[in-house]
Amino acid sequence: MFNLESLRSSLIVSCQAYPGEPMRDPRTTAQVAQSAVIGGAAGVRVQGISDIRAVRAAVDVPVIGLWKDGHDGVFITPTLRHALACTEAGADIVALDGTRRERPDGLTLAETVAALHDQTPALVMADCGSAADAEAAAAAGADIIGTTLAGYTDERPKTTGPDLELLQELAALRLGVPVIAEGRIHTPAQGRSALGAGAFAVVVGTAITHPATITSWFAAALES
User: Fold this and answer.
1) Cα–Cα distance for residue pair 181/172, rounded to 1 Å
2) Is the pTM value of this prediction over 0.85?
3) Taking Cα atoms as reference points, which of 54, 58, 105 lies closest to residue 77?
4) 140-172: per-residue pLDDT in tens?
5) Residue closest to 127 by CA, chosen among 38, 45, 26, 210
6) Which DSSP string do the residues of 46-92 spell out, in sequence order?
7) Is residue 52 within 8 Å of residue 29, measured between CB atoms?
8) Which residues pair with 95 in a beta bridge?
9) Residue 214: in which H helix or E strand, if any?
């Protein structure tokens, strides 16, 4: 069992590729994760059972695992079955939808978290979209709160960078669990700002591990 304190004030790199992309291969994901660790990542976040398994075998840092199933509503590790599969594949932390929306298997978030704690050694990261989500997720027993869904539900506007206002609000609430900043962190300065706003750690994905998007940023800038 790893010590959660090892992630304090650190960078966690999300190593994901979308279906149909050339890099959507567990071997590639594992190599990207290894490269991120060489660069200083203290943990990695990985989507999909095959990718979690491959990355777990390739790196020694904590692995945050999730399983996206669907595209709308609750689709980030939407059921207990999905969550248990992530732990079986090697995830140290299971990231799941931490909003107050109804879950597809009919279980409450509290029931899902309790089952994971009872049946596995994994911690639970609740991906939230608002302060109300975060308070409910902490009360449900989540070990970590993520701002992953801020701007992707109807409760908050989608900011151009990280939702620093939400981070500050969560810090003031003193939820009693770490809050990890995730979502639209595209520069080192934005990462530092997220820590300054109260984040325990910072997850960066697209700006490090998604070359198609990074290339599009440069191409668009040159065209303009």
Assistant:
1) 15
2) yes
3) 105
4) 999 999 999 999 999 999 999 999 999 999 999
5) 45
6) EESHHHHHHHHHH--S-EEEE-B-SSSSS-BS-SHHHHHHHHHHT-S
7) no
8) 125
9) helix 211-223
